[in-house]
Structures are given as C-alpha cells and as structure tokens.
Amino acid sequence: QPELGKPLRNCYSLPGLNYTYGLYLPRTDGGVAEAIGHWDSVKWVRKKRIMPRDYVTMNRGAAEAGCTTAREFALYHKYMDIRCKDPGRLPRGWPSKIPADMTFGRPTRPSIPIVDIIHHRYKELWMERQRARTVVQELQKKKLEVRETRTTFLRTHPPPVKEESFWHPARFEKV
C-alpha cells in the first residue's frame, strides 16, 4: 500500500547528483540563458535554390546526339545535366504562384443563388432545353428521306418482259 498522498515507489534507484540527463552538445547548447538572451543573433544562411532538371531540353539534345535506347538516354541525362533557367518555367507538379481564389489548384465555383433553387429555375431551364431538343428531333425525322433500295426501285419500275424464243438445236433446223 502506498503512503497517503504519495505515489507508489518504483524499484529503480536514481543516478547520483552529477548525472546529466539527455544529450549535451558543447558547441551549440548554451542552455536556457543563451536561448533567452541571444535568440535574435541567429544569422540565416540563404541556400541557393537548385532548379529542377529540364527534361524537354535534355531529351531533345539526346535525340540530336543519336541516342536511341533508354540506357543511352539515361547516360546522356547523367553527364549532360541541364537545369531550368527561368523560375517561372517549372515542370508540372512543382509549386508555383497560385491565385488567391484557388483552392488546391482548382478555381472556386461561382455561388448559386438560393432564390433560383427555391423557385425551381434550373428545372424550368432543363425542361425548356428538353422541349427544344424534341422539336429539333421531330424536324429531323420529317426531313429524313427514305432511300430507294433496289427492291423498292424494281417494285415501282418493273423490268420489261422478255419474249420467249423457242430455241432448237441446229440439227433440227434443216428438217
């Protein structure tokens, strides 16, 4: 049973008073005093931005150099590392300046007036379009001409009847 108001004691003995908890870094760690007193003395080092590779130019150069296989293209890319020069001309997928009215690369949709929804305006517009479409379809059906096939042509214009000729073999001609 623990003493009243005190937690259970664990079995481990704590290290001595000279023990330092955590990792001590002598060059950068100045403790709390340095963090509070000298927080604004950090000099920012501006890193040079490495532009992405310009694969269009590299592929064009590889084709002009006569590369035909994937291995040759890879070697060309390895030794002829061409980077994009203009920061505005970044390849797809790289972050660029996004307008304020865009969310996740898509423009915001225009707001739909609630009055039009309540008065079923969109249903009426759809019904008008459907009526106009059916009128156009009916006009097209009326304009549709039936093509004459050979059968319908022969029904209207029957071929002339051939006269029957009684053919006899040549040996019976001289009888």
Describe the structure.
The chain is mainly alpha-helical. Among the domains are: 49-86, no CATH class; 114-156. Helices cover 36% and strands 2% of the residues. It has six helices and two strands. It has helices spanning 31-37, 55-65, 70-79, 114-118, 121-143, 150-156, and strands at 102-103, 106-107. Strands 1-2 form a two-stranded antiparallel sheet. Strand 1 and strand 2 (106-107) form a beta hairpin. Helix 2 crosses helix 3 (70-79). The longest helix is centred in the last third of the chain and has 23 residues, at 121-143. The protein is elongated, with a radius of gyration of 46 Å. The chain starts with 30 loop residues before the first helix and ends in a 19-residue tail after the last helix. The mean pLDDT is 80. This is CFA77 protein. It comes from Grallaria varia (variegated antpitta). Pfam families: CFAP77.
The gist of it:
With 175 residues, the protein is an all-alpha fold. The protein has helices at residues 31-37, 55-65, 70-79, 114-118, 121-143, 150-156; strands at 102-103, 106-107.
